[in-house]
Q: What sequence folds into this?
């Protein structure tokens, strides 16, 4: 009867010996800018289904297919289910554990008079055990599991955003290649007419073989761009099919490149980005999960108290066990406190602290990356807008030069070299304008991606 008071009296000594000073979080050097460096006059909100802003129903369908069938998204959904099950595993420690046992035994022993005695017995019992969560270790484990599950929800949203953005970018690239291929084929037809004219003028003696050879060389140079663009289109279609989770094959097109609307999302304030991007939410929740895991690691240094009880019966046979059993029961408790483990538990707590610190540093890195990506997208849109204005002006001027040079050559006022130079300049100007148009639309996709694509955290 004296053991219990001694144990209660020794408990404060065990707590003081096992207590560990809190490990403070590292100081943060993260600062949120007050405004973006690149000014934006856009006023449209960032919708969750932001890809609809381009005005192409085919693009809408492709993004939906990708969100339903993409392999990375399926993996992310399965991972989320795993972490949701981990919550139930951690939460199960809040309740008692019940076990049923049934054990038949046949034994032979020496009796009191030296003769062998054989006995048969059957024991059935229900055992219960329960750990008192006095120091919050179980609650901390549940909290860590919940934060990890929430981080996987944010990771799923981040993957969905990446899949949608990659699908839209891939589709816009495909439309850009289609436009370049149409331009190359139209230019090829023009080169064929120029070559026929140069050959006819050579045959009638009006021009030299040099001009005909120059026209032929330009014809083959333009013709070589057609299979090159066709190859790029085929490769782009396969890349898009991978995002869609589809087999290799052609990809449907909707509106052409020039018919797409140019969306104008509003970037908002930099501080809004912290609550809109799913990767930032994921990093934030991982900080909370690692902090809860650190508390659990510290609690492992404290004593644990476990209560046990069993209720059973014994009989010489199964029928006797059911009819007139001998009742058996037991109840007890135990206190387990670490006294010496060569520093293992303290080292594990230090490891949990470094994991928490890394999570903080990762969060800061993710936030800085988000700010940089948004600034880059805004700067790209502004710069590409200005470039496209100049490229369109150059395209108009170059095609006017080509028209005048063609008239002069056909009327005998200029050499073919002048028209050839005008053809090359016009083709380059047209191609550059198309590429800039595709790059500008892709920059808007990058901005949507940087802004979080309209994602909002679930309540």
A:
């Amino acid at each position: 009867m004296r053991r219990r008071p001694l144990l209660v009296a020794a408990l404060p000594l065990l707590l003081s010996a096992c207590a560990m000073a809190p490990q403070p979080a590292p100081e943060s050097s993260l600062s949120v800018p007050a405004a973006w460096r690149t000014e934006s006059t856009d006023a449209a909100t960032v919708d969750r289904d932001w890809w609809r802003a381009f005005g192409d129903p085919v693009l809408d369908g492709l993004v939906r297919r990708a969100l339903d069938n993409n392999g990375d998204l399926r993996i992310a959904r399965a991972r989320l289910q795993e972490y949701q099950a981990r919550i139930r595993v951690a939460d199960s420690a809040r309740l008692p554990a019940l076990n049923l046992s049934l054990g038949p035994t046949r034994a032979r022993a020496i009796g009191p008079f030296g003769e062998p005695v054989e006995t048969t017995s059957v024991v059935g019992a229900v055992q219960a055990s329960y750990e008192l969560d006095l120091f919050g270790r179980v609650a901390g484990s549940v909290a860590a599991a919940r934060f990890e599950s929430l981080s996987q929800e944010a990771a799923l949203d981040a993957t969905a955003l990446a899949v949608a953005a990659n699908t839209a970018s891939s589709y816009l690239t495909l439309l850009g290649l289609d436009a370049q291929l149409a331009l190359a084929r139209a230019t090829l037809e023009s080169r064929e007419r120029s070559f026929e004219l140069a050959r006819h003028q050579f045959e009638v003696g009006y021009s030299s073989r040099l001009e005909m050879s120059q026209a032929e060389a330009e014809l083959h140079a333009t013709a070589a761009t057609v299979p090159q663009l066709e190859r790029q289109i085929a490769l782009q279609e396969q890349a898009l099919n991978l995002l869609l989770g589809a087999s290799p094959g052609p990809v449907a097109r909707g509106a052409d490149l020039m018919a797409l609307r140019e969306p104008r999302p509003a970037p908002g304030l930099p501080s809004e980005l912290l609550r809109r991007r799913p990767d930032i939410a994921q990093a934030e929740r991982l900080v909370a999960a690692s902090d809860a895991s650190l508390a659990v690691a510290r609690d492992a240094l404290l004593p644990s108290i476990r209560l046990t009880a069993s209720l059973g019966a014994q009989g010489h046979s199964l029928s006797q066990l059911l009819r007139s059993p001998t009742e058996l029961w037991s109840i007890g408790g135990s206190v387990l406190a670490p006294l010496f483990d060569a520093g293992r538990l303290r080292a594990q707590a230090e490891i949990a602290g470094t994991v928490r610190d890394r999570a903080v540093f990762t969060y800061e890195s993710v936030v800085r990356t988000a700010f940089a990506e948004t600034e880059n997208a805004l700067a790209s849109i502004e710069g590409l807008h200005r470039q496209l204005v100049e490229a369109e002006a150059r395209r108009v001027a170059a095609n006017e030069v080509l028209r005048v040079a063609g008239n002069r050559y056909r009327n005998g006022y200029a050499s073919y070299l002048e028209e050839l130079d005008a053809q090359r300049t016009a083709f380059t100007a047209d191609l550059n304008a198309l590429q800039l148009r595709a790059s500008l639309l892709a920059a808007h996709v990058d901005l949507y991606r940087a802004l979080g694509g309209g994602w909002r955290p679930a309540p």
Notes: Confidence is low (pLDDT under 50) at residues 1-21.
